[in-house]
Amino acid sequence: MVTAVLMSTGSVTLAQDSSNIDAAYSENGRYFTEDDIPTYNIDEEGRIDWLTYSGFRRYHSECHVCHGPEGEGSTYAPALKKSAIELDYYDFIDVVVNGRKRVNASENSVMPAFGDNPNVMCYLDDIYVYLKARGTEAVPRGRPGAKEPKSDVIREDENACMG
């Protein structure tokens, strides 16, 4: 799903410093960098935040068919796990929402638009933080184990988005 998202944006922002990854603050079960960008969190007991867990589920529901399990890529579409750390968050959103098509002599990359798909759009930050956690190897392959509970605010937002 996020293949062309991450691989074919014109402006890739390399941001591998920890300010793009480390949680600076949390709000109602969501974690953010110092620049207000969603990120993952793993507590002292090894529990992941709810959005990262949800992102695993949503990624495998909508994205892994093309991009392979755990963001590892496939013969059909590139790996995404590193792209979530290298690509600017807003570029990521733009490609997922609007899609992207690059077809020429050297490449054939088509990312469909998911802007009308609530199974993607209601969980876009979840998918992003999951891929970010995979890209840093903070979350290994496979279904995450221990997780924080879903906050009431996340539950309310999900219900409002899904209708």
Automatic annotation (TrEMBL):
Domain Cytochrome c, residue spans: 54-129
Start and end residues of each stretch annotated as Disordered: 139-163
InterPro entries tied to this protein: C-typ_cyt_methanol_metab-rel, Cyt_c-like_dom, Cyt_c-like_dom_sf
Biased composition (Basic and acidic residues): 145-163
Cross-referenced Gene3D superfamilies: Cytochrome c-like domain (1.10.760.10)
UniProt entry keywords in alphabetical sequence: Heme, Iron, Metal-binding
Domain of life: Bacteria
Protein name: C-type cytochrome, methanol metabolism-related
Record organism: Hoeflea ulvae
